[in-house]
């Protein structure tokens, strides 16, 4: 009886699939100017002296302030990418994994207000996307699943008036798209006498 239980336990342990998490390598503490003659990019892969690059690349504005900082592992973007305007204000923060956009992606207008914010998974939109105009008014609210629109989708004009309001359910659109023959839907309403 003990042998049967031991055999069943051993069989159960052996049949379980082990999940091995991908080990994230620390990014090399090497910094190079992206426009350096030794750096070249081919098919989204960065090379330094003909070897896949691991480390940080940066670019400078004419006033010598940093305007770009990107991190790479084995030639592919990996980690955070940060861009700044020449006035030292933040322009973008993006996350990458193995050369693909992953995680939170945020951009800002030059006045410091948010421009857009969304999440990405393997270079595709995932979840909620928001876009704002330069005044900070929300002008686009969308939802995505695996890079495709899914759920509520809304767009507004800068004056706050609704431009489009529809829902995508299983790939089918329901609601107000916002335009008809290059004209606003409200412009094509008939008056019946």
Description:
This protein is mostly beta strands and 193 residues long. It has two domains: 26-88, no CATH class; 98-193, no CATH class. Helices cover 7% and strands 53% of the residues. The chain is built from one helix and 18 strands. The chain has one helix at 2-15, and strands at 31-33, 39-42, 45-48, 51-52, 55-60, 66-73, 76-84, 90-97, 100-108, 114-121, 124-132, 138-145, 148-149, 151-156, 162-169, 172-176, 179-180, 183-184. Strands 1, 5, 6, 7, 8, 9, 10, 11, 12, 13, 14, 15 and 16 form a 13-stranded mixed beta sheet that branches. Strands 2-3-4 form a three-stranded antiparallel beta sheet, with no helix packed on it. Strands 17-18 form a two-stranded antiparallel sheet. A hairpin with a 2-residue loop joins strand 3 (45-48) and strand 4. It is flat. The protein starts with a helix and ends in a 9-residue tail after the last strand. Residues 1-24 and 187-193 have low confidence and may be disordered. InterPro entries: MORN_2. It holds the Pfam family MORN_2. This is Toxin-antitoxin system YwqK family antitoxin.
């Amino acid at each position: 009886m003990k042998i049967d239980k031991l055999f069943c336990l051993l069989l159960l342990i052996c049949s379980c699939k082990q999940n091995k998490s991908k080990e994230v390598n620390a990014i090399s503490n090497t910094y190079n100017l992206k426009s350096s003659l030794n750096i070249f990019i081919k098919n989204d892969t960065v090379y330094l002296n003909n070897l896949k690059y691991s480390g940080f690349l940066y670019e400078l504005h004419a006033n010598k302030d940093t305007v770009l900082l990107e991190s790479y592992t084995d030639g592919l973007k990996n980690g955070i990418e940060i861009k700044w305007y020449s006035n030292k204000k933040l322009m973008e923060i993006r996350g990458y994994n193995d050369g693909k956009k992953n995680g939170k992606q945020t951009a800002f207008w030059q006045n410091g207000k948010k421009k857009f914010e969304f999440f990405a998974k393997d270079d595709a939109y995932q979840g909620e996307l928001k876009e704002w105009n330069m005044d900070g008014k929300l002008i686009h609210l969308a939802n995505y699943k695996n890079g495709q629109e899914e759920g509520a989708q809304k767009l507004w004009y800068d004056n706050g008036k609704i431009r489009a309001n529809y829902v995508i359910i299983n790939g089918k659109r329901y609601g107000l798209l916002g335009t008809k023959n290059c004209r606003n839907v409200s412009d094509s309403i008939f008056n019946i006498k």
